[in-house]
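Standup, Tuesday
Yesterday: got the pipeline producing structure tokens again.
Today: sanity-check two examples.
Blockers: none.

Example 1:
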Amino acid sequence: MAQSLTTQATDLAAAKMAAVNEFIMHHVSDSHEWAPFGKAIELPAWLSVHGLMLVIGATILITLFGLIYRHKDPVPHGWTNLLEMFVLLVRNQIAVPFLGEKDGRKMAPLFCTFFFFILCLNLMSITPLFPAATANINVTGALALVTLGFMIFGGMVKNGVFGFFKAFVPHGVPLPLLFLLTPLEILGMFIKAGALAIRLFANMLAGHIVIFALLSLLVIFGLFALPVLALVILVFFLELLVAFLQAFIFTLLSAVFIGQLYHPEH
């Protein structure tokens, strides 16, 4: 009898673990089914859930900057003051220091777009309604490709085609070593862009899996796992910090990589 009860308890725990694992994988993976309020909404074949999150994120930013932001106010306050604070942070602490005054101000809109778009998607993903679009390597890879495009084509426009490739030739290196180092320098440019995509994707994916894995202990063990809620709350606030931090780091590294090819002499 005792063995039978133990077997039943083991089977029940295994079934719960399988259900929890399926739920976590469904939340962090892309699909055509979105269930914001428990009821599944089937999306058309041409639109995935993460694609929809991109549209919603862009709509939120357009609303913030197009309707709520009051650029004509002599003294900014409320949302306008908050948004301007982040804009000045990106322009004065990221764009200008790494690209110079002229190029930094010219490129500031790009870096502000990176920062606010990634931050918006990150903050959306830590709410129960929205899946984690930045936990999708395709999304972060597309953002990194934008950075790579500015690194390559922007560098060519800024310094010319010859000047662009000259930046990959180390100075004072013996000629035989150049045949080894120059291809590695060019390869390093693509590796930097890939690292941008993987860093953002991996951090957001790991954070969501950790939170859901901890919550799953409540589903499997019931009230015995109630103390784990304190750890979940701690991880949630850590994830909130990571949402801001990853948006800042992606923007910062994009400025560093672009600035290296815009001004190779430095």
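Example 2:
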Amino acid sequence: MMDWTDRHCRMFHRQLTGRALLYTEMVTAQAILHGDQERLLGFSPDEQPVALQLGGSDPALLAQAAKAGAAAGYVEINLNVGCPSDRVQSGRFGACLMAEPDLVADCVNAMGEVVDVPVTVKNRLGIDDQTTDEVLPKFLETVAAAGCSSFIIHARKAWLSGLSPKENRTIPPLDYELVYKMKRQFPELEIILNGGVETLRQVSIHRTHVDGVMMGREAYHNPYVLAHVDQHFFGHRLDPLTRHEVAEQMKPYIGAQLAKGTTLHSITRHMIGLFQGLPGARSWRRVLSEKATKPGAGLEVLDEALAQIHMPEAVS
């Protein structure tokens, strides 16, 4: 979710669910230590609970980055061992670390020694020609021994040779049963399933086998799927906000950000899918795509986009 789940995206998603744990885009340890920490780590308390996802393979650098993240207020530090992009591989982190469980364990141990919040790992089933039902349990056992008790498992293998990052999100077959098996084999670990989950009904089914479910791209492209999360899984009794109400609730935040010099498009680009499937959704997307990018664009553009949705909205 690099370049997607930034602070503006998370603030938008927080209007839809108050309880789901949100994750940052992956940030490299090097960037945090040598870059603008306020830009990379800063977030609003209204976004909480939020986890920081780190990329890297140097235990000492990751420890420093994790310490900075914990000091910034993140409730969890997550190490990404699943991203298959070429840029990530060239830096020796992401999915290629599935081949180095001992190094991942060293990274987890180093981070755990300097923070009081949980250190978790997001990983794949395996990579390339690895035999997943042999590699995955060994990986979990090795990293768990270093102090990690929670794993988010993307239920696909990553092919680092021969497939693009985009293809790695769809072509390797999903193997939910293997993730379920890991929960049975390691009942003491928290196992969270990720990959290909598109509906809350699917979430409910998976949760009969594992401890939790992470939704990624579906939640981004069709964000209103998050509106019922608090009711279904956290016992929230109030009806969810309508899509119009969600957009209206974003206005104070957008206004404050515009006053700081933030462009409208950097916020509304995350809201494009809010009305997906409703009459007028195409016009909503067109107005935001064409007009929010213009210099000086303000809340009037959001109002114009909302005016494209003519029919009364039912909560569904």
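Quick observation on example 2: The chain has 15 helices and eight strands. The chain has a mean pLDDT of 93.
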